[in-house]
């Protein structure tokens, strides 16, 4: 991926057809469907299938899973037309490779970052996953392993690169898109809470503002050469 491709946005946690329409109309590249019962954004297989079928060509459907077993994955993959699996639990590199081989879908592995000690995990998963998702590590007492609207210290990954495409996540919102991109150099952004009015309630206005903020960066004129 080069800078000419612009910045790709994933809107995660869509639960209504109008959320899918808003993400597509705004120009998002990925739509995330959460298969984690404890999340306020959780969808069942039937609803997920309807939402995925409503997505226009060009909007990639991503299933978010947390330590899912084969039986659950089998049921989801059999019924929901998907473009990618996002693994957001404690899946080992071996499990990531196994899931990738079993379903023949690209796999994105989320890694929680809070301190420099967390960074080697990104290298390990960068060897087995198709993409890596660099997210804020959930606090120990958090009910969810992600989707908490918390950012991490982006200076930790400034200048870091991995051998596969990667996305930045955690506490992103329309107002911090420019800073997140400037500090990390990311070309892909993943957002959930930052485009909601309440947990699980997506806002078309905030989705539009988020994608526009990313698009504006790609359009910003280069600094003129002296
Ligand atoms: O969104 C959820 O409910 C969720 C549940 C379980 C694991 C991950 C979840 N969301 C992912 O978390 C990050 C950051 O979200 P936020 O923007 O800080 O709210 C993002 O990758 C979501 O896909």
From TrEMBL:
Pathway: Amino-acid biosynthesis; L-tryptophan biosynthesis; L-tryptophan from chorismate: step 3/5
EC number(s) recorded for this UniProt protein: 5.3.1.24
Domain N-(5'phosphoribosyl) anthranilate isomerase (PRAI): 9-212
This protein's UniProt keywords: Amino-acid biosynthesis, Aromatic amino acid biosynthesis, Isomerase, Tryptophan biosynthesis
GO annotation terms (biological process): L-tryptophan biosynthetic process
Entry coiled-coil feature ranges: none
Catalytic activity: N-(5-phospho-beta-D-ribosyl)anthranilate = 1-(2-carboxyphenylamino)-1-deoxy-D-ribulose 5-phosphate
Matches recorded under CDD domains: PRAI (cd00405)
GO molecular function: phosphoribosylanthranilate isomerase activity
Record carries keyword Amino-acid biosynthesis: yes
Keyword field contains Transmembrane: no
Family the entry assigns: Belongs to the TrpF family.
PANTHER family per the UniProt record, alphabetical: N-(5'-PHOSPHORIBOSYL)ANTHRANILATE ISOMERASE
Name of the protein this chain belongs to: N-(5'-phosphoribosyl)anthranilate isomerase
Name of the gene this protein is made from: trpF
């Amino acid at each position: 991926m080069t800078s000419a491709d612009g910045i790709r946005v994933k809107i995660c946690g869509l639960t209504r057809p109008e959320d899918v329409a808003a993400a597509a109309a705004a120009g998002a590249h990925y739509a995330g469907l959460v298969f984690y019962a404890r999340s306020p954004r959780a969808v069942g297989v039937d609803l997920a299938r309807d939402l995925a079928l409503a997505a226009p060509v060009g909007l990639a459907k991503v299933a978010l899973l947390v330590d899912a077993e084969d039986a659950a994955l089998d049921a989801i993959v059999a019924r929901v037309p998907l473009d990618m699996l996002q693994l957001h639990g404690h899946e080992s590199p071996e499990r990531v490779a196994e899931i990738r081989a079993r379903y023949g879908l690209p796999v994105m592995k989320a890694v929680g970052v809070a301190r420099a000690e967390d960074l080697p995990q990104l290298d390990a998963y960068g060897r087995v996953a198709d993409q890596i998702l660099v997210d804020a590590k959930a606090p120990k007492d958090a009910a969810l392993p992600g989707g908490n609207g918390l950012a991490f210290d982006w200076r930790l990954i400034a200048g870091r690169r991995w051998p596969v495409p990667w996305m930045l996540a955690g506490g992103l919102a329309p107002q911090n898109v420019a800073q997140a991109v400037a500090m990390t150099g990311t070309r892909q952004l993943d957002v959930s809470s930052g485009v909601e009015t309440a947990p699980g309630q997506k806002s078309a206005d905030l989705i539009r503002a988020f994608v526009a903020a990313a698009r504006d960066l790609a359009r910003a004129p280069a600094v003129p050469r002296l």
